TrEMBL record:
Membrane-topology annotation of the record: Multi-pass membrane protein
GO CC field: dolichol-phosphate-mannose synthase complex; endoplasmic reticulum membrane
Coiled-coil segments on the chain, per record: none
Protein family (similarity comment): Belongs to the DPM3 family.
Organism of origin: Geotrypetes seraphini
Biological process (GO), any one: GPI anchor biosynthetic process
Protein name per UniProt: Dolichol-phosphate mannosyltransferase subunit 3
Gene name of the encoded protein: LOC117368352
Lineage top rank: taxon: Eukaryota
Keyword Membrane attributed: yes
Subcellular location: Endoplasmic reticulum membrane
Assembly, per entry: Component of the dolichol-phosphate mannose (DPM) synthase complex.
Length: 91
């Protein structure tokens, strides 16, 4: 989904919420529906936060160790230290 589509979807949802909340089209929703629609953005924000927290937690829990990359990085660090020591930098 492109950024344009994301913004258009958000604008469409916002326009629908404004229309239903402030009765701009004269639909005269029943009172229980009106009480449901009014806090809907807060509910959606809470659901998004829970989903984001669960996704981050799952990704952290299933993070794989990259032992080959770690060894390669340590070797590069050793090479860089040798090179810098030859140039006069002390650690």
């Amino acid at each position: 989904m492109t950024k344009l589509m994301e913004w258009l979807a958000a604008a469409l949802l916002g326009a629908a919420w404004l229309t239903l909340s402030f009765d701009l089209l004269g639909l005269s929703l029943p009172e229980p529906w009106r009480r449901l629609v009014w806090p809907l953005p807060v509910y959606l924000l809470m659901i998004f936060g829970c989903y984001s927290l669960a996704t981050v937690g799952f990704r952290v829990a299933t993070l794989r160790d990259c032992e080959d990359a770690a060894r390669e990085l340590q070797e590069q660090i050793r090479e860089a230290r040798k090179d810098l020591s030859r140039r006069g930098l002390t650690f």
